[in-house]
Design goal:
The radius of gyration is 21 Å and the shape is globular. Helix 1 packs across helix 11, helix 3 packs across helix 11 and helix 9 packs across helix 10. The chain has two domains: 154 residues, 3-Layer(bba) Sandwich (FAD/NAD(P)-binding domain); 133 residues, 2-Layer Sandwich (D-Amino Acid Oxidase, Chain A, domain 2), CATH 3.30.9.10. 34% of the residues lie in helices and 27% in strands. It is built from eleven helices and 22 strands. The strands form five sheets. It has a six-stranded mixed sheet with strand order 10-3-2-14-22-21. Strands 15, 17, 18, 19 and 20 form a five-stranded antiparallel sheet that branches. A four-stranded mixed sheet has the order 1-13-12-11, with no helix packed on it. The two termini are 19 Å apart. By secondary structure, it is α/β, with parallel strands linked by helices.
Length: 399
């Protein structure tokens, strides 16, 4: 089967890329290959559903630029397509004097990134809007919101297919080869696709797809599972806004936070623990290939040597509800283990380089007629339409 552009992965980034290219070139034919039975089956469909404002990210960074532009594009798309969202606002709270310098730094990032109506609130002001939250200071971020990204992905798919392009499910890529000026992509069901241009947006599998296409990479995707608890009905209104702690600057994770889902449930989490299965959302899920890829990568062991103490804390929170509740009660006194019910899980495709560093920004590799998005961490769902726009611009330059 022939097409002008072939995209691997029907998550938020892959679908946004197809959508944005078609906005610019409505007459070309795009095929999106997805190995699962539905779109948004992994990171897009398992995240916390937060619309991120861009306040955390270094001014001028790829993350900051795309998050802020993507946020605006996402709202416009939702308004156009009648998708529900709710800008409920966020508090980033400092519970310890040592966190105040970092809180100030985050606030300054937000100002430099162009966010308006940010407020630095003292303890009394926080209590007025969130009586159950305890902190020294907090940043109020009115732009933050909640949404169901699966619904966004479904609308993107609908728009793509309305132009005559296609999203094919149950198509797992197993080989990529160049023939003359074309690329031949073969799937595990023996189907083949011939394309003039290939874009890899395969998320948790993107490093493998890149190597399959002949790229030499000095990094590996290390999967980290985030488990969420759902608060029982009597406690789900303990807070009204999104409540986040000041993040540890050494790590790309945002810590335990309260997230109101678009359906009204209140979640608390996640942890960040090593997963031995890139797509294993169940407890103790194991995949031998994924485990070998982790343990055989020298960068993983360097990461462990650097951050084993942090890892132990995450495992304690993950396997002890009482310990988790104790940590949560630093923000909201009165939370107990009995208030926590099992919630959903997500897996973060964390790129780790050969030196054991966790790569925080987006990684996009370009070669001949190929673009490989090998790291699209949070806020990739919020930033998806902007990332897709950037990739469409690269496509215009390279095609």
């Amino acid at each position: 089967m022939n097409c002008d552009v072939l995209i691997a992965g029907a998550g938020m980034v892959g679908l946004s890329t197809a959508y944005q290219i078609l906005q610019q070139y409505p007459d070309i034919r795009i095929i999106v290959l997805e190995k699962e039975a539905e779109v948004a089956a992994h990171q897009t469909g398992h995240n916390s559903g937060v619309m991120h404002s861009g306040i955390y990210y270094k001014p001028g960074s790829y993350k900051a630029i795309n998050c802020i532009r993507g946020y605006q594009m996402l709202i416009a798309f939702c308004e156009q397509q009648n998708i529900d969202y709710n800008l409920i606002g966020k508090l980033i709270i400092a519970s310890d004097e040592r966190e105040l310098p970092k809180l100030n730094s985050i606030y300054n990032n937000g100002i430099q990134n162009g966010l308006t109506q940010l407020s630095m609130l003292e303890q009394d002001a926080v209590k007025r809007i969130e009586p159950n939250v305890t902190c020294l200071k907090a940043i109020y971020v009115p732009q933050a919101g909640i949404i169901d990204y699966k619904k966004v992905a479904a609308k993107l798919k609908q728009n793509i297919e309305s132009t005559g392009s296609f999203v094919y499910n149950l198509k797992k890529i197993k080989a990529i080869r160049e023939v003359s000026d074309k690329l031949i992509v073969k799937c595990s069901d023996e189907s083949e696709f011939e394309t003039s241009f290939f874009i890899n947006c395969a998320g948790l599998q993107s490093d493998r797809i890149a190597r399959m296409a002949g790229l030499n990479t000095d990094f590996r995707i290390i999967p980290f599972k985030g488990n969420y608890f759902k608060l029982k009905e009597e406690k789900k209104d303990i807070v009204k806004h999104l409540i986040y702690p000041v993040p540890d600057p050494q790590f790309p994770f945002l810590g335990i936070h309260y997230t109101r889902l678009i359906n009204g449930d209140q979640t608390l989490g996640p942890n960040a623990v090593l997963s031995l299965n890139r797509e294993g959302y169940e407890s103790a899920s194991f995949n031998s290939k994924d485990t070998y890829d982790i343990l055989s990568f020298p960068g993983f062991w360097k990461l462990i040597r650097k951050h084993w103490k942090m890892g132990m804390g995450e495992y304690l929170r993950n396997y002890s509800k009482s310990y988790f509740a104790k940590k949560a009660s630093l923000m909201t006194p009165g939370i107990t283990a009995d208030d926590l019910q099992p919630g959903h899980s997500g897996i973060r495709a964390q790129v780790v380089d050969s030196h054991g560093n966790m790569v925080e920004d987006f990684v996009c590799l370009r070669k001949n007629k190929m673009i490989h998005v090998c790291n699209a961490p949070s806020p990739a769902a919020t930033a998806g339409l902007s990332i897709g726009k950037q990739i469409s611009e690269w496509y215009s330059e390279m095609k």
